[in-house]
Amino acid sequence: MKTKILFFIVLLWIPFLQGFSQEIPQISVVGQSQLEIMPDEALLTVSLNAKAMETATATAELNKKAKQVKTALEKSGVEDYELTAENYYVNVNRIYSKGSSKDSGYVASQTMEILVRDTGEDLLKVMQVLHGSTDMGFQLSYRLSDETKKSYLEKLLEMAIADARRKANVIAANLDIEEVFVHRVDYQGGDSFQPVVYGNERFSMKAADQQAPPTLQPGEQTLNERVTIIFTFEK
Questions:
Q1: What is the distance, to the nearest Å, from the Cα of residue 164 to the centroid of all Cα atoms in its chain?
Q2: Which helix (DSSP H) or strand (DSSP E) does residue 83 occupy?
Q3: CB-based burial label for 165 (10 Å; 0-12, 13-18, 19+)
Q4: What are the tens digits of pLDDT across the range 3-29?
């Protein structure tokens, strides 16, 4: 009976003994990299709206403004751009005053996005035609194209891996560890770049305005990458 109990106790301890004996010494580090890159495209977000007492009238007026934007772009002479229309709404024009509200016709609104791949002369031409086409508000943001981000992805990853190895070697040298070996790599992928809005403001232009578009001086934008690498070493 004692032999059976002893054998059962040994069986219970085997997983713990195995886990202890198989514990691997580790050094976990995060490798990071960063590049400053000039944006290679610009996105103009144009906001159009029209008010009228009837939905058909409001819609017709909004379509007229959208057509004016398209016509202006065609006259600009710029060819390398993409125009998309989205967020089309027709809502009741509800006016609030002194704790009460009343309905006064309808508001039709739409967002048009103009992607310009030349952030220099072409962008200025597009802004000039928008400036003189119709009443509108538009917002400008600079960004990196997908092609540009992909072209830098491999270099960023190489830099992040080199950074992780450099950190691991520094730790090992200061702990009198002769050599470290890669045990596991945790890589999520992606970057933290976000489009930057020019001047953090909105341009509101009217057809009667004669001012020139602002001088545009986009700054470099940042691409980041990171990778976690776990190194092991001999005790």
A1: 25
A2: strand 81-97
A3: middle
A4: 555 444 545 555 554 554 468 899 999
Place of tokens 């027709």: 90
Q: What angle do CA 125, 128, 130 make, to 5 degrees?
A: 110
Range list of H helices, the chain: 2-21, 55-76, 121-133, 146-174
Instruction: Tell me which amino acid residue 51 is.
Output: K
Write down the residue that tokens 């020139």 correspond to. 212
**CA-to-CA distance for 100 and 83, rounded, in angstroms?**
40
Q: Are 80 and 133 in contact (CB under 8 A)?
A: no
DSSP code, position 80: S
Phi, then psi, of 114 in degrees rounded to 5: -120, 110
Q: Helix, strand or coil for residue 129?
A: helix
Whether the full predicted model's pTM is greater than 0.90, yes or no, is: no
Under 8 Å between Cβ of 44 and 128? no
**pLDDT per residue over 25-45, tens digit each?**
999 999 999 999 889 999 999
String of DSSP letters for 191-211: -----EEGGGS-EEE-TT--P
Packing angle, helices 121-133 and 55-76, rounded to 10: 140
The number of angstroms, rounded, from the C-alpha of 71 to the middle of its chain's C-alpha atoms is: 30
- 3-class SS of residue 85: strand
Amino acid at 60: A
Secondary structure (3-state) at 25: coil
DSSP 217-234: -PPPEEEEEEEEEEEEE-
Query: How far is 137 from 49, CA to CA, in rounded Å?
Result: 10
